[in-house]
């Protein structure tokens, strides 16, 4: 006879009662009939989680009619190992260190047993418990892992609470979306005996008593098409249901009760830096790691899964993804396995969950390396040995200069052994202490299965925890697949206006991970950190991120789009105490002292506007201290070892509010202006490989101050002497010093007399002077034939749109209604067609030829669109707002957002050129263009230009024949544009017939200038540039060392080609007659690309020359603002191309000491 089940239907799930009559006893809460605990974890409550009635659905409530709680009568031996003690026992004394105590009974157990009358199969595992017990005892570490063999036999305590009543919510929608994959996974789990079933709810209750399922979800594995991962959402329900009687499984689990070691970024960096030369690493993953770990049967009631179909369930008996204790439960096995690897003499080895990295050293270094390990073992023991911080087990070593202790993931008590003679192996493997075969020998004995398809064999490059490590060059970089994954996450975030807490946490975690490679990125996480702090008790309600978050993510996207994200593996350097102190006062201002120098600034009236407070002043104080200290210390040490030591040595600074730099977490009191100061402080480029406590450093700026600080203190404060301070200056700073000096001196007073200035065109003095219709001196129009239209961009034939070159469409394609000679009232004027043509001729000059060509392409697409929509001519110009918006929407997703914007500008220019009104609602059009930018297809996104470098130019030179006139001109043009930081189009011409002496550089535009210190520069006057079409601009370079010297290259070109004084500077001889041709941009790029391929290098774009020049000068220590002047950058755009920010700060440390004092005087003037 069976009692009728009472079914409750909570939100999102079902709740079943417990039948009063059972065919099987419950394997759930038991009286004190189980065997004593084999171990106890000090610092963790030792009361058995299965005895203490802190239930998921939490009490023996009679809400389920007739539900009773009974214990299974058990014979002498238990069905599982119970970790912990009943409440009858005295509580353990709390401690912060995890230790293990031997239980009273250890032998005579049945292997993998559950009560015979339970109706369930035995606990099973792929591991070999007896072998584990033997190996742990053999190496003397059984005391450290005493509970492990029995846990492998009977199941692990995962902290899953006893279930008070049955609760079966539905699976997530993805379980239906990927139904076939879900069924395949379930069949596999059932086939391998890891799931028991299928059962109905009544059958499960009969076997286990009340049970609880957690929603299943299935997700594709990133980067593995066709592979899926099953996840149990054991955190559901997120809030208690049924009046608090049903809670999630994870809500009852404290992950700190399941600690294990983690091979973190810092740990692996330290390991690598300890390795002797020539060392190698291999990476292996444990196959289905979580699923190899059995869970004790009395906790299975919390691991039941809902299977496809009505009233169908399976009992999961293994560790799984989604369980709060999951990583720690498996981590216990992983820790024991890693320690046995070390005990066998292999290593060092680190792990991150199931990913293991094995290092090996060359045999000749064995004794020296083991001596280092012994010293470290002593330091670890002195620091207290095994420690636990939350769910992490770690070991501390020697104190670092930062005041912290070095972290390890082992105690170093086992030496590395020479196992090269233990079995046959290759010649390469024999040179090292062990090989993969030695790992396999131990793994086979223990039953550890590796995912061999993922093996990364021993070598000097290896992937681990999302990074690519290089032992040869001691570098670490972000894996390309991680880069793409993180950029996709940013894109997905930016497409939604609001987000729940989980979304913010996921994105934050990804970007925080990247900060190991881009430390400055921490400053661009402050808005996300603030955002995560606003959710309170409503984590699932989407909220709008703070203003500035999108700009931060734009910065991240630019960073992640760079071709290579890497850094020197950070080392363990001492910190220089440069006696730097600072303080801020809201009443007075800020002050800093560094050694025997000091400076003060007063705060101007009104400084507290725009939400500024004392936090802003303190941040400003710290920033000033950091920048000044870094610069002075770098100069001071620049004479030692070329300054390298100084550049790599962190500095210790003291502030009245030093703790402020770490207060970026939720609840931080600092407001936006303060965050901005902290961001400036932290986003300054860093030296590669430098570990810097609290601060990042940036290139030392000019001592001009912001609008809220005055360099004049409350008293006139003269700069203090630095005693015997005698800085030196590197050779390459000469030009930087001169540029700085030039910025502070009235250039008109030193302008060379021979500098050429733009003059009006010469005229015949015998003719009367004309002030009207003066010839514009534009280049002759091309007579070339236009290319055929593409099949999908063929406009309908029309007299209004002749087939002409793209750059001529703007002028020659006519709207039906254009500018005429009538006035605003429709009355004829005395103007004629030639006046209208003159207007168009002048207007056309507003756009450069390249711009007109792009606009012409857009005009073609616009008219093909109109043809497809059958838009009549009179509606194409003036174009209506809805027509332009439809044009944008139609081509969105096919072109990049930038291209679409350019096309719209082309249609606008066409209207302006022909006098047709252009009346648009700019807000709507602008918003639509923004949306089109987000729809840009991946294939249309332009990659960042790879910069040219001196080494790249050397490689190109090796493939050029410099006796060839063309090659001589190309190489001279390359070195000139590079060291002058000029645009390629400024020294080349677009076509052979396009040379214009009023626009292009000629030999007569070159001059030599010498400053007061005798430094020579070669100056090129560009008659017309994009920014200065009338006056033109000057660019210059100085002689360089090596084969990339532009002075030698230009002299060689002049000797070979002898270009005429009024012709193109880089004209070259061509043909048997030696006629000279101007160097076109296309020919220039063609020759360079051919040479690059000949040197087995990828060709680079022409714009990469200017980008590379900027990078090179910054690497030499030229300040950013100076480089903006030299490179004539009108915006901060050049920063997005710089791929070596960490090197740019290698400042001011080579030869020529006489210049450094002057450089210091210029960059740090006295207060006035």
From TrEMBL:
InterPro entries: DNA_brk_join_enz, Hepadnavirus_pol/RT, Integrase-like_cat_sf, Integrase_recombinase_N. Residues 1-22, 637-687, 700-728, 746-800 are annotated as: Disordered. GO terms for biological process: DNA integration; DNA recombination. Gene3D superfamilies: 1.10.150.130, Intergrase catalytic core. Residues 651-664, 709-721 have a biased composition (Low complexity). Keywords: DNA recombination, DNA-binding. Residues 791-800 have a biased composition (Basic and acidic residues). One of its GO terms (molecular function) is DNA binding. Residues 1-10, 671-687 have a biased composition (Polar residues). It comes from the Eukaryota. This is Tyr recombinase domain-containing protein. It comes from Gymnopilus dilepis.
